[in-house]
Description:
This protein is an alpha/beta fold. 36% of the residues lie in helices and 15% in strands. The protein contains twelve helices and nine strands. Helix 3 links the parallel strand 1 and strand 2. Helix 1 (14-32) packs across helix 2 (56-82). The longest helix has 27 residues, at 56-82. The termini are far apart. 39% of the residues are buried.
Amino acid sequence: MYPPAPHRGEDVDAAIRQTDSDAALARLSAVRKGYLNDRFISSLVPRAQLQPLRPPLINIGTHVRSEAIDRLVEQWLDLCKSEGKPCQIVSLGAGSDTRFWRLMDGPWKEQIGAYFELDFPDVTLKKAMAIRNPRSGLSTTLGHSELDLGGQALHSSTYHLLPCDLRRPPVDIFPGLFKEHLSPALPTLLLFECVLVYMSPEASSTLIQWFVDFFSPSTHTPSPGTLGCTVYEMFGLEDSFGQVMMNNLRCNVSQKARNVSLPGAKPYPSVDSLPARFLRHGFTSAKALTLRNIRSNYIEPSELERISSLEMLDEVEELNLVLEHYAITWGMKALSAATISPWIEWGLRPVKQQHII
């Protein structure tokens, strides 16, 4: 179920960690070209000013992904506000994500009761160093903070950066990591962005089930908080274009082998199969949309018009093929039928129909 120990002298996870660098550079590029606003990303990318821009295809994909996930997170926070409860967010495989700082910089600051970021120890070590760097300005958002676990963990009153290997049995690592910081009584949103696809289906299922169990009624918490989950990743990689994507992932820009494998994609050949990831764990509702569908039907026409003016896009057919192989899936698990409202309203809503090439 869980991966074997790496061979001596071989860092088998380096390729997975490199995908975080790829995503951070893509976001930096999208910000510099005007697709997104994120004044924090440059603090988490080494030599940010020297990094090359990415092609329009990557910039557009990054924009669609960000728009959709941002909307889901903000809707969740609004629902928490309507319920008069603070929200917990757990970002698993967070890497160089800046979402915590962006939320704390906006109108949802008071809604965040606790924010957790989990990733490989060397990833959290580098992020902790970047946060503590006075020139980054990231630590001012945290207030007082303390390092732990040899600098691999960082804690403030709201933010917790935690090192772990998410493929290991969560029952062995999470109680000691979360300690008393994660409350089963509060509504909680899990975020997975290109994480579960790198794990075996068994390991990812065990991971989700741990949270389902944690947010289930118990003697100490008879009325647990509503649990939400959002997953962004690739799927349907068995077709011809999916195989092309796999080959590209196996090589970096220098065409050197990266040995990336995506075992988590195999159980999901179509977008219709993706909600089963949540429904098999007893979630109340779940839905999935491809990025192509989101771009065509779930982003405001005025925003799409603005984006289209930023760069010329020649690879329209390739863009659509790529967006057809990425999806965002979201699911919600309420305690009972009596507590399903207003959470059942959570999700992306289509805008006025439009034609997008």
